Amino acid sequence: MIRLDRYIARTLLGAIAMVLAVLAVLGALFLFIGEQDSIGTGHYTAVEALLNSLLNVPGFALNALPAAAVIGGLLGVGALARSHELTVMRAAGMPKRRLLLAVLGAGAALAVLAWCADEFLVPPLAQYASQRKAFAKYENVSFAGAGGAWIRDGSTIINVSRQTGEEVFGGTLVFEVDDAGRLRSIGRAESARGAGRQSWELSGYAESRFAGDAVSVTAAATRMLQSRASAGFLQLAVQDPSDLSIGALYRAIRYLGANQLDAARYRFALWSKIARLLALPVALAFALPLGFGSMRSAGMGARTTLGLGIGIVYFFLQRMVESGALVFRLDPLLLSVLPTLLLALAAGVLLIRTR
Hints:
The chain is an alpha+beta fold and about 350 residues long. It is built from 9 helices and 7 strands; from the N terminus they run ααααβββββββααααα.
């Protein structure tokens, strides 16, 4: 049985690797097309855009892995079915439960590989790509330490510690210095929103201004700040929770919880990543019953189309759930695992109905 398990796993993982390679090539193309608007800004050339796209391909492939598992699983099971190997295994006394365990074992191995990539490969490459792009497009940029992103624009120095939404940032500090480098003022905003190509709207702004031996303090609900540092730059410099590894998300949640800070976005990102890992063996289990019955003799085109449709539905359902959880503040655990639970339910129904 161990030899059969290895053969089934090798067939399924080989089909998934082939599908993932195709998706990775398409992803690199789409990523490169998305970089066209940035080419020509500063020292950001087409070569830099190509390198940036290639560095982000592993992250794209990791996000596309559940869809690739569905398509590859259908193709792998289809190859076993068309060559009547599944029929021979069943005729030789291999029960349906034993086949399911072999398929789940292949999915578990794939999930372990995906976790290793998410933990040790994808975040460093994505961060390196973001830093290269920022250094190429902007000058006087620093990413030193854990204090967020720093940029100097003339006499103004801006520090942003975190990103809270699309073109919305929190924990923003604004320093102004004179020509001699002496500090003139320190300001802090609860949030900052891009208000054009070279302006920011600071909300909840308080400022301390130094004049000789005196310090004057002012506060305002909003303040407009002129700066060449666009929201696009700060999005490059401040990592989103979805870009962090599972280990980094866990540590961030513990830190935020210990300091009584809101960790909902980090908690949802953590459970979403875990749910996507669990979706890999579930996707292969979903493909197994389609190797029997009317789908046994279906061609590669039919299986690819079916797998692509299911993968797209899963991908968009996951994205829709993520948006809903963040906007409506719903339970992150339930919503993050909802697409995987639906896929598992469909797999269970198909397996029960399979003879």
